[in-house]
Design a protein that fits this description.
The chain has 6 helices and 7 strands. It is an alpha/beta fold. The protein is globular, with a radius of gyration of 17 Å. 42% of the residues are buried.
Length: 224
């Protein structure tokens, strides 16, 4: 299945901007589950890939992370970069926002973070980019650090299958209608030798399903 190019995704989200916060009601419950299972009260350094408007980063910094924790947020969109930078300004040097060129190489040292957060971005990426990004996430996470993901996915039951089918049809006709996102299965890309699953759940608010996945990082030479 074709995917949005990096350039096309950038153009779309530059135009979409803050409207992202008014939509996607289906994200609320999955994000709640992600936060509940990410053990954020123990985090010291968070890296978020694809921060969007910065709404999640603001929430984590204001309600869930220890005062000492640092936060690095990156996005391909100039508009999202500016929105996030404004939103995170109250946290000063603790919160750094970076604009990326759209590649999967992360500007972070190895084993420098203990949480890698990515919500509703993997469903924009090609399979090759998913694998590259997971490799980079594993590189920047410390041993035992947590990979914290949420993505659109396929569901079971008539309502969920109907919603998924309609979404896939819209994606095939005009990917921009659904922001370039399509349902994927995160767990298929998680390899036991690299990650130890800690939490996985599929929820379907309104019939549209999301997969929430938290896994701990296993470095070379460690038992999973």
């Amino acid at each position: 299945m074709r995917t949005f190019s990096h350039a096309r995704a950038k153009r779309f989200y530059d135009r979409f901007g803050a409207r992202q916060d008014r939509g996607a009601l289906y994200e609320r419950r999955p994000i709640e589950l992600l936060i509940e299972n990410a053990e954020l009260d123990e985090a010291t350094a968070v890296f978020e890939f694809g921060c969007g408007t910065g709404r999640l980063a603001e929430r984590l910094l204001s309600r869930h992370l220890p005062e000492r924790a640092t936060y690095t947020a990156v996005d391909i969109s100039d508009t999202m970069f500016e929105l996030t930078r404004e939103r995170l300004a109250p946290w000063g040097p603790r919160a750094e926002v970076r604009l990326t060129a759209g590649d999967m190489d992360l500007d972070a040292a190895g084993s420098s973070h203990d949480r890698f957060v990515c919500a509703y971005v993997f469903d924009l990426l090609s399979v090759d980019d998913i694998h590259k990004l997971l490799g980079e996430a594993r590189r920047v996470l410390r041993p035992g650090g947590l990979l914290c993901l949420a993505s659109l996915t396929a569901g079971h039951g008539f309502g969920a299958k109907l919603a998924t089918g309609l979404w896939r049809l819209a994606y095939l006709i005009a990917p921009a209608l659904v922001g370039g996102c399509r349902p994927i299965r995160l767990w298929r890309h998680i390899y036991a030798e690299h990650w130890e699953a800690r939490y996985r759940r599929v929820v379907c608010p309104g019939g549209l399903c999301s997969e929430v996945l938290v896994a701990s990082c296993v470095k070379d030479g460690e038992a999973p």
